[in-house]
Amino acid sequence: MKNRLSKTPKRQSRQRRRTKNTHQKLLEAARAVFAEKGMDLARIDEISERADVGKGTFYYHYKSKSQLIQELIKSILSELVATIEDKCRDASDIQSLLYSLIGAHIEFFSKCWEDFVLYFQSRSDLILQDCYIGIETPFAEYLEFIEDLLESVIKHKLPQPALRRIACAITGFVSGYYSFAAIGSQDENIDEAFASLQGAMAASLGRFIQEALPSAETSGNFCK
Amino acid sequence: MKNRLSKTPKRQSRQRRRTKNTHQKLLEAARAVFAEKGMDLARIDEISERADVGKGTFYYHYKSKSQLIQELIKSILSELVATIEDKCRDASDIQSLLYSLIGAHIEFFSKCWEDFVLYFQSRSDLILQDCYIGIETPFAEYLEFIEDLLESVIKHKLPQPALRRIACAITGFVSGYYSFAAIGSQDENIDEAFASLQGAMAASLGRFIQEALPSAETSGNFCK
DNA sequence: GTCGAAACTGACGATAATGTCAATATCGAC
DNA sequence: GTCGATATTGACATTATCGTCAGTTTCGAC
Fold this sequence. Notes:
- 2 copies of one chain form a homodimer.
- The first copy, chain A, is mostly helical.
- Chain A is built from 11 helices and no strands.
- In chain A, 40% of the residues are buried.
């Protein structure tokens, strides 16, 4: 037994890299196809075709499309969370946190259109009765992460539902604007327009929080 | 020729109603199935099954699923526009317009969950490369309608892109919040929470518009 | 260089969904 | 009551997609 195990004690580098590469290629291809046809209508055939591997290879790496989606969403959201974490590290008041939070989303969405599409598609999927399994958790974690950030800069204790509402408002506003801008702005550069609104959005959300908080206390003076 | 035409000069009431009814039943069934499985994964079989008619009947009324979707979206959005029109009729300043605009969306979304799902799904579909044809126009008209409303209460002339951005922000904020709330708020009543935020959203968007406008002029005093 | 394990392949059977169509039912007009 | 037009039906041919599997290739260890 031990002998058998010792036959492959550590994995080999070349083969290991090749495998990793295939895995990655499939993920990339899936991103592209998903952004074209949508998650539901994307065919495994096309994904493996575009990754330039046989269809069997797909099934060697992933149990099913559902599992691929799960992994993809998880990876996308954890990247988004990482971007947020990075950008918001030293925000200490609510105004600068909001600004950075929005900035992180702009940066993330602008960097890769496919990721935004996936982000939006899966949110859209989440409101269905029969949705892909396993994509709820990453979204919940993403919201929770934002809530933690908010909590750390808001002085007084807030009830959880209020925090959640604020987080929903922020993420909803940002992604909602972006998606509408994508379909609505015929010619102009979406990302540029988006970036130019960063300040306005932050101010606006600041105001939202101020108004939405049940407690009368005003820790910030968003209204100059 | 004229004789032939005169054979069916006006349609008969009973048969007419029956047909209309079937048409409506199919539309209703589609709404329900779409909200369960999503537009892509909804099967014609299931729609006609749920409408309690033969599959052939579906194809008698609609050329294809694509056409059904087109009609459905069109009807939903024109209903939304009608709601907006009704609620915003006598809003004369920007603050009250925003308030009514949000109110109209809340009312509309709350009234029928299926409609919200369809609204959101089709927006999600619109950002894909290969999306259903014919759903772009209703959305464009919806945005344009909101722009017209905005224009009528904003004193000074705004460039079209700025108006569009504001419209995107409003609709994005409202629907974005609602969708996140739907997946994020585990227990509490979404509609109630949403309604309680109506004022905060309006104030917030007022602030957004104020900040986003390039011109320095301040017609409104949103900051008390 | 040869052996075994891991990675890869694409043709194939099974399944599922689409859209068609010839036959049938319903209805109002005359 | 019968005729033509309109509406409805579900079995069917067609097409698309899935997931499997027996066989092949790649690679590192010895």
